[in-house]
Amino acid sequence: MIEAQGLTKRYGATVAVDNLSFEVKPGKVTGFLGPNGAGKSTTMRMILGLDTPTSGDVRIDGQRYRDLHQPLTKIGALLDAKWVHPNRSARAHLAWMAASNKLPKSSVDKALEMVGLTSVANKRAGAYSLGMSQRLGIAGALLGDPEVLLFDEPVNGLDPEGILWIRNFMHRLASEGRTVLVSSHLLSEMAQTAEELIVIGRGKLIAQSSTQEFVDRASGTTIKVRSPQLDQLAGVLNQQQLVTRIEDVDKQGKALFVEGDLTTDQIGEAAAAHGIVLHELTLQRGSLEQAFMQMTGDSVQYHAHDELAHVGDVRLDAPSNVEVVSGPKEDN
Amino acid sequence: MSLITVERIKLFSTRSPWWCMIIAAVLSIGLAALATGFATGPDEARVTPAMTQFGVGLGQMVIMVMAALAVTTEYRFGTIRTSFQAVPQRAALLLNKTVVVATLAAVVGLAASWGSWAVGNLLAPSADMAINTNAEWRLMFGQAFVYALSAIFAIAVGILIRQSAGAIAILILWPLLVESLLPLIPKIGDDLQKWTPFTNANQFLNGEQDMGLAGAEAAGASTALSPWWALAYFAAWGIGLLIIALAAASKRDA
User: Fold this and answer.
1) CB-closest option in B77, B84, B86 to A72
2) Would you call A123 an interface residue with chain B, using a CB distance cutoff of 8 Å?
3) Reported ipTM exceeds the 0.85 cut
């Protein structure tokens, strides 16, 4: 188990990680989610004892990383696939890592086999494609057969085949009962791999929950209703002071999207009570993307001055009587 | 022991250390061939063992480059982070690297000194090339100490600078320019030079040495210390710098 307590990292005036506390539960894939520059990599480097926290600390099974002996047998990590000497062979790279933790020579062959690099193990690592480098990095992480694994943006820049491979690999690791912490800014990726989520923005913890809970809580649910008497239905629902909007959906007519605490049951009953015909009544779950934008909207560090500017920190920091002029006004 | 293995694998699994070692040996022995081969006729008899050793100092520079690169390439390619991740006890890891590189440097130093002497022996057969004074024994075996300590010095600089070009520039300019230009400073220049590290390393090797044909000036500046104390002084520089470097590496972010 990884436990962070009030983890803080300052670089001069910049606060990269701000009083971050979380725990990574054993035997699950936990997604470490945040926009670029949110402090994910810094946090991971602190977990691995590479960077020293300004204050707070992070422990692996109650121990600081720096106090671990033969850490590769406890926690394996891939932070950057490029951290390999380009003129050294994959086998030599893994061989020195194995020697450093007193692992048997056979562990090198086993790790190479596991990631499918056996046939190119004696080639210089500099000639590897990104996908192969990533596999080599994963082989390094798995070398000591650790219980805990850390991956920083493992699918970044990979082609679809590579992404699929990594995704299946994560599932396999999780099914073996290992603890996996994997960072990403790709939310759809996390929805497919992570059971738990730790969401950060601007170095601060935004949420820690199960992926499902996060989506539910952050974006709520939307109910889609199609009906030939939409205006009438909208009137009824408006009377109950619910947030509604009407959108074109298809050629047959319009659909109504109801956001709020209503259930499909209540809408169906309201429609029946007023004799309104319904063609469709469905519950639509919010996507992880929506949830993420909603939760981290204030935390994106570098905004483009586009339609998102109004939810960002630009307006929050500005005096209340000054409007942001460069971004278009919101349309509601 | 396992950390020695780690650094041995790292060093020998890339090509640049091999090249540096070959260049160091070739430079040393090649210069010995030039210094003795052109001495003909009556000059040939005035060749001494010390005269074969000028190139060994050049090889020493190359070995310092190799030692610095052993550290700076790790920073350059990020493997230092993989290293610290595998062995969080950073000082222990870097110390083992130092042991491996310094040992190798000592071996190359011996190969360079005796190889140069052998070439001199071959090219100046009528000269008295026997190693029979204390000073000559000190010179021939002393290259091992000087090479090893230079490597320690270079590793320390490499750890502190973390960048190949910068570290190599310092390691080349310091002994070649800074130490030799110090006497230009009026009044205190000469005294300053007496307490610089590489001038003392030179004092250890060339102090009380018979330079023969090359003339006494070839021995370079002498210092206030006797040869063995000069070596101790040079060692103090290398080890002192290494301690500072290890402390810095343990403290700062990788």
Assistant:
1) B86
2) no
3) yes
Show which of residues 3-62 on chain A sit within 8 Å of chain B, judged by CB atoms: 45, 48-52
For residue A259, what are the β-bridge partners? A222, A243
What distance in Å separates the CA atoms of residue A6 and residue A19, rounded to the nearest whole number?
Answer: 4
Q: Which fold has domain A2-217?
A: Rossmann fold (3.40.50)
Q: Which residue on chain A is closest to B96 by alpha carbon?
A: A100
**Is A54 within 8 Å of A46 (Cβ atoms)?**
no
A179-184 and A148-152 as β-strands: parallel, antiparallel, unpaired?
parallel
Q: Are strands A253-259 and A221-226 parallel, antiparallel or unpaired?
A: antiparallel
| Yes or no, beta carbons of B81 and A83 under 8 Å apart | yes
Q: Considering CB atoms only, which of B14, B81, B253 is closest to A52? A: B253
Q: Which residues of A touch B20 (CB under 8 A)?
A: none
Q: Which residues of B touch A71 (CB under 8 A)?
A: 85-86, 88
pLDDT-flagged residues of chain A (< 50): 305-332
Task: Please report residues of A whose CB lies closer than 8 A to that of B78.
Answer: 80, 82-84
**Is residue A320 exposed (0-12), middle (13-18) or buried (19+ Cβ within 10 Å)?**
exposed
Answer yes or no: are the C-beta atoms of B228 and B64 closer than 8 Å: no
User: How far is the C-alpha of A125 from the C-alpha of B14, rounded, in Å?
Assistant: 11
- For chain A, the structural domain boundaries read 2-217, 221-285
Give the model's pLDDT for residue A287: 63
**CB of A81 within 8 A of CB of A130?**
yes
Identify which of B169, B120, B173, B158 has the alpha carbon closest to the alpha carbon of residue B242. Answer: B158
Contacts of B250 in chain A (CB under 8 A): none
In chain A, what residues touch B81 (CB-CB under 8 Å)? 45, 50, 79-80, 83
User: Across the interface, do B77 and A99 touch by the CB < 8 Å criterion?
Assistant: no
Measured in residues, chain B has a length of 254
User: CA of B25 to nearest chain A CA: how many angstroms apart?
Assistant: 23
CB pairs under 8 A between A and B: 85
Identify the residue whose tokens are 């006497």: B183
Q: What are the pLDDT digits (tens) for A168-214? A: 888 888 889 899 999 988 777 787 788 899 999 889 998 898 988 87
pLDDT < 50 stretches in chain B: none
The three-class DSSP label of residue A84 is coil
Instruction: Please state, as a whole number, how many other Cβ atoms lie within 10 Å of the Cβ of residue A147.
Output: 18
The string of DSSP codes covering A244-311 is EEEEEEETTEEEEEEESS--HHHHHHHHHHTT---SEEEEEEPPHHHHHHHHHTTT-SS--SSTTGGG
A7: buried, middle or exposed (CB in 10 Å: 19+, 13-18, 0-12)?
buried
Q: How far is CA A188 from CA A167, A170, A289, B182, in A?
A: 12, 15, 7, 65
* Torsion angles phi and psi, residue A239, rounded to 5: -60, -35
Q: Helices (DSSP H) in A147-186: which residue ranges?
A: 160-175
Predicted local distance difference test score (pLDDT) of residue A221: 66
- Report how far apart, in Å, the C-alpha atoms of B238 and of each of A140, B141, B149, B150, B162 are: 34, 19, 6, 7, 17
A221-285 is classed CATH 3.30.70.250: yes
Q: Where are the beta strands (DSSP E) in B90-211?
A: none
